[in-house]
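Lay summary

Proteins are chains of building blocks that fold into shapes. Our project writes down both the chain and a compact code for its shape. Here are two examples, one after the other.
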Amino acid sequence: MKREELIRYLDELLEPARFRDYCPNGLQVEGAGDVQRIVAGVSACQALIDAAVERGADTLLAHHGWFWRGEDGRVTGFRKARMQTLLGRDINLIAYHLPLDAHSQLGNNARLAALLDWRAEGRFGEQDLGWIGRPAAPQTLAELARQVAETLRRAPLCIGDADRRIERLAWCSGGGQGYFEPAATLGVDAFLSGEISEHAVHLARETGVAYLSAGHHATERFGVQALAAHLSARFGLECDFIDIDNPV
């Protein structure tokens, strides 16, 4: 498949132009013109790049790419090492950030709902990145925390009464702690995100809305994995998802 065809398809699928993002979406580093083998992962770190080299990939597909707003733009140190590896092996870097959080089927929030058997009922917050819905059946916060731990293979940090009955909940993967206050005004019993801020602990205690902080990496493994599987099924591309462990 030609690189330009793949980027055109991904842009149509994920609609990056709809989002005000913190980084460029789509092709970030140009490599080989023909795409046959893709390595996918959460973040385009050196370990993931090395995994792409080891597998003979021509394309790296990530959720967290490069060139973030406000970062030092000089290509030195670890930035030089990363870019030198990609350019030296003619490997494309393709990354989609907020578009891959938001997609209604392949996005991180959609995949979280599917894996945890939650019934999505709507969106909320800036750029509609927050999701709201219900568990398959009412459960206590302790039961919800156990389900999340089993599914994500990581025990969440929980703020709230373990016996609280959870009938409605909201969620936003990754660094979605800013969506907690809007979620709390919607009458939910719990909110899940990848991270939690200091002030959110007090807000959870004062509102009674439980907060589950389940890990930025842990909550964002599933979107890029689903996207890679989709590309493999649709175009016959070889796609390997590599999970580079990250405790945060």
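And here is the second example, written the same way.
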Amino acid sequence: MKKPAVVIIDDHAVLRRGLKDLFRHSNIDVVAEGSNVNEALELATNHASAIFIVDLNLGGEENGFPLIAKLRGLDIRVMIYSMRDNLDTILAAYRAGASAYIPKSADSSALVDAVNKIAEGGTYFMPGSAEQLMLYISTGASDNPTDLLNASELKIFILAANGKRAEEIAKELDFAVGTVHNRLSGIRRKLNCSNMDFYKIALKHGLVA
């Protein structure tokens, strides 16, 4: 069987080096590495068959959630490896299209297990986490933007929560500025809030750093 191939996207060089050592001894090929969103998207061109291991905090104001959506749009499999371990964030990552979510506090064997599971076409959950997520979903109405917004609205919401103006969002997503304004209006209605509340709501649900 062909060895699984991975691309590591994390802004800490020491961590990337440690992961490369781990995978080298686990029959997994590290075919590339990067430290930010732009490098990840450049690498996606030549490594579309690899599993991308992505940190959610990529330095500065960069957030991994829009990157998940972009990579999934290219039919690239994504595994999240993050310091965050709250259920809001984990659930949001799976809903954005991640095939696994591994907290950095987990044993390194979970990374290897997750890569092998994804390489076989599956989705990986940490032991007990699937049950926790199901219970979490079943308890009451959610105020999570990932529950209330469609994929396009969620991208705009996260960018706006990170302080992007409508003109900047339009340029990044290749939308008309008027379209972004209309979507922002719809987002405010669905979340029952103002633009000023976006960051607070996004932070609560683990969508921004």
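What can we say about the second shape? The CA atoms of residues 34 and 40 lie 6 Å apart.
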